[in-house]
Amino acid sequence: MQPAPLTLYNSLTRSPERFDPIRADEVRVYTCGPTVYNYQHIGNMRAFLFADTLGRVLRWKGYRLRHIINITDVGHLTSDADAGDDKMERAAAREQRSIWDIAAYYTDVFKRDVTRLNITPPAEWTVATDYVPQMIAFAESIAERHCYRLDSGLYFDVSTVPDYGHLARHASDAGESRIDPIDGKRNPQDFAIWRTSPPGERRQMEWDSPWGRGAPGWHLECSVMSHAQLGHPFDIHTGGIDHREIHHPNEIAQNQAHCGCIDGEPGFTGARFWMHNNFLVDRGGKMSKSAGEFLTLQVLVDRGIHPLSYRLMCLSAHYRSELEFTWESVVAAQTRLKRLVQTIERLRGQPEKPSRSTVDKHVAAFDAALSDDLNTPRALPVLDTMLADKRLSPADRLAAAERFDAVLGLGLATLTRADLRVRPVSATLNDAGIEARLDQRREARAAKDFARSDAIRDELAAAGVEAMDGDPLGWDWKLDIPIE
Ligand code: AMP
Ligand code: ZN
What we know:
Elements: E1 7-10, E2 15-18, E3 27-31, H1 42-60, E4 65-71, H2 87-95, H3 99-116, E5 124-127, H4 132-146, E6 147-150, E7 153-156, E8 191-196, E9 214-216, H5 218-230, E10 234-240, H6 247-259, E11 271-277, E12 280-282, E13 285-286, H7 297-302, H8 307-315, E14 323-324, H9 327-349, H10 360-371, H11 376-387, H12 394-408, H13 431-446, H14 450-462, E15 465-467, E16 477-479
Parallel strand pairs: 3-4, 3-10, 4-5, 10-11, 12-14
Antiparallel strand pairs: 1-2, 6-7, 7-8, 8-9, 12-13, 15-16
This protein binds adenosine monophosphate and zinc ion (ZN).
Zinc ion (ZN) is lined by residues 32, 222, 247.
């Protein structure tokens, strides 16, 4: 079987392009990570699920992967464009804890969610505050030709690099309304490389620098860590689509300034591909943390949703499409996952017999879908078709499912139907209690005491448990998931 060439959509050119690695032996990928001042919402987790799918497809294609995700624990202001408060400082004030405590706590919660979603950990989680000396050195190397000083710090002059903002496709003054003015900036899009602490004010996180005591600008960290860990240019840089507008254009400007190759290497941006996932939205629009209440993975689990059901929901949409979160859709994904798990459990129980065909056709269809810019919604039905192909022996189908799952990451080799029965926190009966009531109901029915049988059914329903009679999936009961 001839594998299809891998095509990925490059935000730089706004078109699909054939992917070939820069180095034959390794593909290098950098993903903008979380700012650890709060919980990540499930929209943020979509960004990491997308990066994980990209990494898994690269491995499926036989490449060795070096993937870096950073942890932003300094510098990110409430606006991406240098305005507002430092998110970490603000969280520390809100929670009356040190910034370091805040960062440690939210990093741990984030990594737990990464594990629950079966996201492959990167080769390194690079932590921004570990790189401050390198950030200062990087800033020194570009300061003279590309930066200027204001009282509030060192600023990057975007007019010193060619084609600033090409990635965002701004008309030169479009989008500026989002950028709060800072006195003395030469161009509205100029951004802080170093933020000097105001005189007499001490921040919890500050370092000495040639531009006074202060903290690095947010954009600097990703240029510095990607360069330190991967070298420039590396293969693929990923992030959410909001980063296409400000953060990534600023990273590109820094990278161009730093490489000193502006005149010599037209088109140099620091990475070959820039890839962006679209947003998870809800009825109110883009899911965001500033909106007050927001959905975390734990909220889903508390309502009876398994984390991998959310993973499957994300895989069911293309990463470049907006995806609307509704409780109905995540419940539907959970049902789909249950069906898959049940099919696999059944295959495991079937007697062995020889295959009358090979899996090649299915593998080729699966590969073709993924090679087409990671088209997971097209790849998923290939798994269903393959599992239903009766010309294949159960063993061959199970082996192929495991190969496919190396890309999908749904845990199909180990997940059981019992795992998928997540008890909502509101549930008043545990599994043993439910089974005991169902036994009593069976006895009542055997004794033709239908009034009692119905009463038990009603009692279970009041506790959020549906008794299932003759369910095609073989379930005796299921938990109701409260849908708003
Ligand atoms: P943050 O912690 O705010 O830096 O965000 C972490 C990642 O989540 C970034 O790549 C963002 O672009 C991405 N992101 C933020 N909101 C959403 C959303 N609603 N849907 C998908 N990705 C998002
Ligand atoms: Zn970044």
